Amino acid sequence: MKGAEIFVQCLLQENVEVIFGHPGGVVLSIYDCLYDAPIRHILMRHEQAAAHAADGYARASGKVGVCIGTSGPGATNLVTGIATAQMDSIPIVVFTGNVPTHLIGSDAFQEADIVGITRPCTKHSYLVRRVEDLARTIKEAFYVAATGRPGPVLVDMPKDVLLAETEFDYPKTVNLRGYHPPSEGDWAQVEKAAQLLMEAKRPVIYAGGGVISSGGSAELVETAELLQAPVTTTLLGMGCFPSAHRLSLGMLGMHGTWYANTSMSHADVILAVGVRFDDRVTGRLAAFCPNAKFIHIDIDPSEINKNVQVHVPIIGDAKTVLRQLNQLLVEQCAKTTEEWQAERRAWHAQIDQWKEQYPLCYDDSDEVIKPQRLMEELSNVTDSAAIIATDVGQHQMWAAQYYRFTQPRTWLSSGGLGTMGFGFPAAIGAQMAYPDRQVVAIVGDGGFQMTMQELATAAEHRLPVKVIIMNNAFLGMVRQWQEIFFERRYSAVDLSLSPDFAKLAEAFGIVGMTVTKPAALASALREAMDLPGPVLVDVRVAQEENVYPMIPPGGAIHEMIVGEYKSPKVVHMS
Amino acid sequence: MSQTISLLVENKFGVLARIAGLFSARGYNIDSLSVAQTEDPTLSHITLVTDLEPKAFQQLLKLLDKLVDVVSVADLSNGHSVARELALLKVKADQAQRVEILKEAELFRARVIHAGIDAYIFEVTGDTGKIEAFIRLFQKYEIQEVARTGAVAMARDSRQGHAI
User: Fold this and answer.
1) Are B92 and B141 in contact, with CB atoms under 8 Å apart?
2) Closest Cβ–Cβ partner in A116, A176, A300 for B68
3) In this structure, are residues A259 and A351 in contact, taking their beta carbons and an 8 Å threshold?
4) Strand A466-471 relative to strand A92-98: parallel, antiparallel, unpaired?
């Protein structure tokens, strides 16, 4: 069997249904095999979008996303998508073509050392030099991408390897001496954690993307309810705990809720699950949760004590460890004293007071569409059940604050790398995973212009994905920072000469709408959701609205700027 | 304080680049590095010497251990290990000085591995201090060239180091 056929057979063995890619010279043999194969190939208009689509597919479905590019520029265009997946621990397998082995290193046409270029932003990578190694390598790539702390794995395949022939033999098992993903946590440590949590007077659970990737949301809800502990999630943890739950504090960190950050600051024990104490969460580290002892559950030992000194480290899969913990807590919580219950009630009362003091709120308007209102309306129109993909910036933060997430894997956003242009292609990937679910890309007018060529992809496949542009004619978050920290010197953030996005959509054969008035917003969104196929809605929002609350750069989490409101519209998350 | 790390890795291309990349990406220097195949041809042994803040060093050990091609990591900075390096030293040796040079080399158990008309090449092994002392001593003669390896190191105790 030829290498290219082996490639396709391996993908079938891995139950790959869809791959996102762009053909080119050295991968022609693969594309020839794909012509007849029972695998859907989605022709993206740019390789960066192919990687983001594979990533969105993986985030939404929990399966491994697959993308492919040709050698040289095809491969280098994938890099932003690979780095995005790496920062957020998303399992994707990235295939690239390369020039024939005898030309590698000769600066041949469309040659790039893509293994070298991506080494710092992949979990692992391979250059396959012999066709005999191809099947085993692909088996390993899928295994490494999906197990342990997930991440992107790159497989670079020279042209002659794809043309060479060998017996096809897909290995059943993987044998990697240096790779041992942990699963169960050390019981002694779990016992210590349970004891610390039971003794806590002001516990907070700080949950992140690891809960979602391990599928541990139900376990997390159980832990929170057993302990009567409030839960705050990171940006990537959105959806792992229902936002309407009485114990929900919403998001924490730079643009998290004031009460989530304040609760963290006053906590005596923090259970950190599947999080990495990112600087956008901790603010100034020296002043982060000064009163707390930390229990940290993480599958990656190198995350333990990286930023914050932890009292009880537990290395293991978040879902498995939460199960272990719950097993102990069920017994212990069954015999809690009235005093224990009273302490918890006091803690909840304190938090309720904080929620009233500085709730999530904004000044609504009947004249101009407030971005926060847009998110609330979208949440209403979609019954808070859509899969939401975003770019990075103001719209991302407002979506995180005001869309009411109820389920895991419904929030697809570039957290770690903060990649503009991620949202729309990620939404395409998610829609491929779930053709029947409502998928919405919320993008800014800035980020959308980085990957808007994918309107062609959405149009070609009649994907029912909806694109909502939160159009403030600015690079909004940069403008906000210039306003607050650079005396309103708006350098290079003016996007008022952007295209007419609705007309642009029409040029691609997609329904385009423009909404300018608050009164028209709900019906326009509903119409967009009801229409079959892709729809783009260009929503002109208040231009100089700021995202609050906010931890200023270098600030501590208790030093939030909460914003000033004339007649605040308070948003209750339930 | 300098630290010594011993790594057992897959004997494949690109593994060293991954390891070196962990250092270079953080702006850390590798003071010395020695790599060779082990008795098992699918495995290589790396001895790496660096000088990092304790916290950065501990983090780096974890990151090294995370690499898929790194089979085992041993921290040999605790003193319970032995380390050796090798130096070749070419020194100018006129007829008048030849006997004296050989006598001094003998003090270090350095061996002559090449005797030319006007120069010797010595081979000397030992820990870093000994090699440096040897070079310092020979500076009074005319040193023409020095080539040094990085350290190779091993835990003393059979239960420490790499259990394969």
Assistant:
1) yes
2) A176
3) yes
4) unpaired
Q: How many residues does chain A have?
A: 574
From residue A238, give the alpha-carbon distance in Å to each of A254, A397, B159.
15, 11, 46
State yes or no: pLDDT of B110 exceeds 70. yes
Which stretches within A134-180 are classed as H helix? 134-146, 159-163
Angle between helices A187-199 and A318-334 (to 10 degrees): 50
Q: Measure A288 CA to nearest chain B CA, in Å.
A: 19
> Would you call A180 an interface residue with chain B, using a CB distance cutoff of 8 Å?
no
pTM, two decimals, is 0.96
- Other CB atoms within 10 Å distance of the CB of residue A518: 18
Model pLDDT, residue A573 = 56
Q: What is the pLDDT of residue A570?
A: 84
Specify whether A453 is catalytic: no
- Residue written as tokens 């029409």? A506
Count CB pairs under 8 A between chains A and B: 38
A91 contacts A151 by C-beta, under 8 angstroms: yes
The count of other CB atoms within 10 Å of the CB of residue B145 is: 10
pLDDT value at A255 more than 80: yes
CB contact set of A332 (below 8 Å; sequence gap of 6+): A194, A198
ipTM score assigned to the predicted complex: 0.94
Among the partner-chain residues B14, B62, B71, the one whose CB lies closest to the CB of A178 is B71
Give the count of beta carbons closer than 10 Å to the beta carbon of residue A53.
33
List of E strands, A429-521: 439-444, 466-471, 511-515
Residue A19 near residue A65 (C-beta atoms within 8 A): no
Chain B residues near residue A304 by CB distance under 8 angstroms: 62
Are B59 and A115 inside 8 Å of each other by CB?
no
The 10 Å CB-count burial string (b at 16+, else e) for A315-325 is: bbbbbbbbbbb
